[in-house]
Amino acid sequence: MSIGDCKIMGSIGSDVHDVGVELEIDGLAAGGRGVARREGRVWLVTGGLPGQRVLARARRTHARWIDGDVLQVLKASPLERPAPCPFHASCGGCAWMQLPEQAQRAWKRQVVRDALARLAHLPDVPVEETLASPLALGYRNKIELTFGRSPEGTPVLGYHPPGDARRVEDVAACLLADEAMNRVVACARAFFLEGEGAADPALTQPAEPLRLVIRRSRSEARLLAALRGAPGPFPSARVFAKRLGHEVPEVAGVVRLLAEPGRRGGTRVEALAGQSFLREAMGGISFEVPAASFFQVNPGAAETLLREVLSACGPVRDRTALELYGGMGVFGLALARAGARVGVLEADRDAVAAGMRAATEAGLPARFVRGDVLRSLRERGGTPVDLVLADPPRTGLGPGVAAEVAALAPARIVLVSCDPATLARDLGALHARGYAVQRVVPVDLFPQTPHVEAVSTLARQPAA
Fold first, then answer.
1. Second label for 387, Cα 20 to 30 Å away, from 156, 311, 437, 464?
2. Active-site residue, selected from the candidate residues 91, 174, 187, 418
3. Adjacent-strand bridge partners of 322
4. Is 174 assigned a catalytic role?
5. Tens digit of pLDDT for each residue in 381-440?
6. Element containing residue 422 per DSSP (H, E)
């Protein structure tokens, strides 16, 4: 990011943790914080927007930068608009809601460019304009809220504010969800905060807070509700499931999700009422989505993402393609339909089973392998492929994966990333192994937030 000189009034010293410092916010950084700079030190200010003058307080001081929070906005940004959500100030989940969507997309592109230049030392990679989401609000097909207590001890249901996993801000309705999903929230609030479920011991489990997960199918206009938490007695869960099905007819099923801590793909699903899956279509292929499996949360923008991925892959007929971290194989099955010979690697057992069912129903000859990506790649023994497509989690490619991918010698690699920092790290690792980054296309899967998806195309360079 290009950060100009910023006018800062007030002294910086040991007292910045106790008193406010006046800053001019000049830009935005990955994660959504406002940026200012003085005397070789960068301020990363939670709640700051470009063009604002703010009174900020340091939360943590590092050698070269200071983490801070906005105490007061002294001058509004010319870009600012009133946030449409009444919970915006306390929730903090939609940190960029006060920026118009066009400005959000421009800054997301800039954040990706900055990460490539600063972390991967790839300043000349073309980063295209951010592709827009069809919807700016009401776009999510999944939300997850947490049960907790206010500082006064009142039961609440809402979201963790950024950087504070211990606090829960009470949120009665979310503008990123649709009307039917918010009716599920209202029913849960009435039952667990004020009604007969309020005394259930599952709400006060010390090991893991209880969460309410709501999923929606765009294809069928049906909902699935899940209560995610630690195993153990939950006597009111089935009563709630019956109540919810009566009050929100769109609910197709209610389940409990019992997760094993620290293990991906290890969640056990216990049906409470109705079905434990939803059916969703992507790219013309129908998927039976299990309650605990990953699926893109913005289906409209995910179709844009899918088209961009297929464009990045180029002609694939009669070529071999390997999809890593493939989930249910949304990208892989689209490649198979285009004529590629496809293998999909994924750790989640339920996602693999759903992908195999979708492939069978669509008559597509894709091969699914369940297992750790690094171990599975090593077991392949370096058998070459024409194309590798990877859609890893936010942490990026696992240790050693970039080297194993390069050993397969694909002519092309397409990397889908949801974090600019890990994207830069992974592109740098692949570039060091002989792959040129041809282009990066950001996609706005998460309007109102600083999160951005990006599709990167890499081509193998001839050996010197």
1. 464
2. 418
3. 343, 388
4. no
5. 768 899 999 999 999 999 999 999 999 999 999 999 999 999 999 999 999 999 999 999
6. helix 420-431
